[in-house]
Amino acid sequence: MASADVISYLEALQVQHVASSPSLGEKLGRLLTFFRKREWHQFTDVLEEIVTEPVALTPPFLVDLYNKCVIHNEKRLNQLRLVKFLAFVMKQLPDVKARLEFTAATIPKVSLKDHPDANISVRALHLEGLVQSGDLAAAKPEVEQLEQDLLSRVGIDPSVYARFYAVKCLYHKTQNQLSEFYHSGFQYLAYQPLDGIPLPEQRDLAFSLAIATLVEERLFNFGELLLNPVIASLEDSCCWMVELLRVFYTGDITGYINVCEKYKDNLNSQPALVSNFQMLREKMSIMALVCYSFRQPGGSKLLPFDVIARETQLALDDVELMVMKAMSLNLIRGTIDQIDQNVTVTWVQPRHLGMDQLRAMQQQLGCWAEKVRETAALLEQETKDLTV
């Protein structure tokens, strides 16, 4: 399409929308101006503004804009910003097959050597299509190669990391690989500003991360999740899940029982929680042990079996097995004395601390400081005669 044809198209598009959507009409007018002046940086700025317009997000507006205008000048644009625009264009294509064909045709246009950010970003879009189409066999090597290409380079734009980890998160979620999904989700949140994620997507991600944390046997990162801003998206729409996470985080078994009773219908509506009910109770007991151990002062903590049974609300005969499991998960370290029926805890896994935990640590540090002062005073008293 010649420049004159592009200009005619943009003029007609502006006239079409200037009355019904003045904001979009104004942006199209600026797009036309910058096209005529060949000011491609400003042209790209306006493209990024256009994708925020509700009318533009109605198919096939962006597809037509790309095919009748942008495609003829795409080599002149910043390639990474172009790919960001193409991500919106893809959403207006009719199906996954069309999106895969679109990304497959785009990948050769941006080489990994000359445009690594754009290349990795568009390949991540292609990978997303593979996952959505259910072709996980083809997706697996793509995930591995993309991650290798991404991590072997420096200076990559954070948005590229965010796009890759978002797709990797989807890949693991599709395969029900909960631990990998959880870690990919947090890597995505590390690179993607929260205000750039629509609220419904925040809620979906936060809820999925919560389910993964609860039902994945090896995950005990309740504090990490509760302290992440994304969890605030559930405060209004899904407060029961937030309460459930909090009782796990604090190791509050009585609170857990109350939450289960209070929100019985909500819990029963989640098959993953229903099918893992017994495992959740065991996990709650382990968290109660970890939290109780953490609260005890001193270095090595001697915990009798009957005290552990009381704190975890387990039968005395079940305590040893639960402690062994906590040790196997590397949540605590120590020794078990079967004869004297006690556990010596020498280490507790570091935790993400809230204000209550920080206050408890402050008290422990105060006790430790007092013991140091007492020891120093005793040494001074005992060695008085040695002092010149």
Poorly predicted sequence stretches spanning 5 or more consecutive residues: none
* N- to C-terminal distance: 97 Å
Largest sheet: 3 strands, antiparallel
Oligomeric description of these chains: single chain
- CA radius of gyration is 29 Å
User: Beta-sheet strand percentage?
Assistant: under 5%
What is the overall silhouette? elongated
* Strand order, largest beta sheet: 1-3-2
Averaging pLDDT over every residue, what do you get? 93
Tell me roughly what share of residues is in helical segments: 55-70%
Helix count from the secondary structure assignment: 20
Overall strand count: 3
Q: What is the string of helix and strand elements?
A: HHHHHHHHHHHHHHHHHEHHEEH
Structural class: mainly alpha
Describe the secondary structure blueprint for this structure:
Layout: H1 3-17, H2 22-37, H3 40-50, H4 61-68, H5 79-91, H6 96-106, H7 116-133, H8 136-151, H9 158-174, H10 178-191, H11 199-215, H12 222-226, H13 239-250, H14 253-262, H15 264-268, H16 271-275, H17 277-295, E1 301-304, H18 305-312, H19 319-328, E2 332-337, E3 342-348, H20 355-382
Please name the defining characteristics of this protein:
mainly alpha; single chain; 3-stranded antiparallel β-sheet; 20 helices
Report on the architecture of this protein.
- The chain is 66% helix and 4% strand.
- Helix 6 runs antiparallel to helix 7 (116-133) and helix 8 runs antiparallel to helix 9 (158-174).
- It is mainly alpha-helical and 388 residues long.
- It is built from 20 helices and three strands.
- The longest helix has 28 residues, at 355-382.
- It has a three-stranded antiparallel beta sheet.
- The protein has helices at residues 3-17, 22-37, 40-50, 61-68, 79-91, 96-106, 116-133, 136-151, 158-174, 178-191, 199-215, 222-226, 239-250, 253-262, 264-268, 271-275, 277-295, 305-312, 319-328, 355-382, and strands at residues 301-304, 332-337, 342-348.
- It is elongated and about 95 Å long.
- Strand 2 and strand 3 (342-348) form a beta hairpin.
